[in-house]
TrEMBL record:
This is MFS transporter. The chain crosses the membrane at residues 6-26, 38-58, 64-88. Keywords: Cell membrane, Membrane, Transmembrane, Transmembrane helix, Transport. InterPro entries: MFS (IPR011701), MFS_dom (IPR020846), MFS_trans_sf (IPR036259). Residues 1-117 form the Major facilitator superfamily (MFS) profile domain. Its main location: membrane. It is found in: Cell membrane. Gene3D superfamilies: MFS general substrate transporter like domains. It is a multi-pass membrane protein.
Amino acid sequence: MHGYSALQTGLAFLVPSLAIATGTQLGERLATRIGNRGMLVIGFVVGAAGTAAMAFGFDAGAGYGLLLPGLVVSGVGQGIVWTSMWIAAATGTAADEQGVANGMASTALNKGHLAAR
């Protein structure tokens, strides 16, 4: 990663992880205020804005600092959507079927990650 040491690379990846964690906490608060649909819309819009902002850092000569704002904004959006996804998977599901709903959501998420590669 641009000649970074292992420690520098790990710290660079820590930033988006913290942004996602912040987004999940924000998503939890939003869920009770605006509902799941509104939360999904907000999460996708925030995530898309962050992804668009990252485009400025895609130049080979660009440094991590140009990617950072987009990574943070995109991460917050991802965290909001992540929380909303799990709420959607569990909503309307009987208590004794929650494990199946969770398994299906996890499978769909992982299948999506594999398809993106």
